[in-house]
Amino acid sequence: MRAAVLHETGQDKLEVLDDVEAVGFGPGKVRIRIRATGLCHSDISAMNGVLPQPAPFVPGHEGAGEIVDVGDGVGALKQGDRVLLCWLPACGVCPSCKRGQTELCLAGFLNAGTPNFKRPGGDVFGFAGTGTFTEEVVVDAACAVPIPDDVPFDIAALIGCGVTTGLGAAINTADVEAGSSVAVIGCGGVGISAIQGARLKGAAQIVAVDPVATRREAALRFGATEAVSPDELGDAKQRITAGEGFDYVFEVVGKSATARTAYETTRRGGTLCIVGAGAMDDFLQLNMFELFFDEKRILPSMYGGGDVLTSYERAIALWRAGRIDLEGLITHRVPLAEINDALAQMRTGEALRTCIEI
Fold this sequence. Notes:
This protein has helices at 41-47, 95-98, 107-111, 153-159, 162-173, 189-200, 213-221, 233-241, 256-265, 288-294, 308-320, 339-348, and strands at residues 3-5, 15-17, 21-22, 29-38, 57-58, 62-70, 82-85, 117-119, 122-126, 136-140, 144-146, 181-185, 205-209, 226-228, 246-251, 266-274, 297-300, 330-335, 353-357. By secondary structure, it is α/β, with parallel strands linked by helices. The model has no long low-confidence stretch (mean pLDDT 96).
């Protein structure tokens, strides 16, 4: 079986091998033939060590495909079902799940330490307990979410992470108010989805902020009312808000420097929503006086900040109705053999989302 493998954390290229085997099939598990998978920036963050993940591992967590086998005890799924992969399934019994905060369930993270694959040389892990840069993967049945027949695999893959994360940040976590002003810092696939969410909620001004010109141009197509480079953000703040700051600012980069900029760009009493996944040793500095005096709400958003199954259904309904553009997010398509081209497209900012077709 073919899969793209990162041998050691810190390497910048993957090796596509044909001697990888998906393991772990048994009761409560399903085997999925991957048909399409998106490249998310979190995959690169895991490769370079920003996000913790044992190596060697198969990256990828934004995938969709068909079930080829089901283990004992799996009653809701059957061979041939079309599914997307949920990398953060809810167990339903932990304190977070019982409180209704299923996006905080840790069951999925625990899967990241269990090998999903093996090679003649030993065990291979799957990123975030999945690993979708492969032809087949074995996961818990809860990770396989059925999709309607009219949803293409490439669209379903995006809903499995980037779209759900960005839309949910605006709709669930920040709950953007109609007529408000919004700035989104970082306009890749997740940032663009946050822009679409803010537009759906009725934001009056949506300023997209990104150093890459092509991403700024794309943001305008997806609902931004203005797109600026980072060094133009201060001017935009002055022109649009008379220097007060935006009602909502979304940080979708995952760095303390941009989070600090986002804080300073948020008006007093406004909302800063942290969407980007950053490193454990990258600390955001705030002083106690400004926290008290500015009364800004700082809201981290994990996987869209809501029940992911509900979020999937909402995204499909909005896509069907033409209220969100998901096809336009896919700017590049490559076969698995050219996965390193996809990595280059992501690193340079050339791509919003690259679909790896398997």
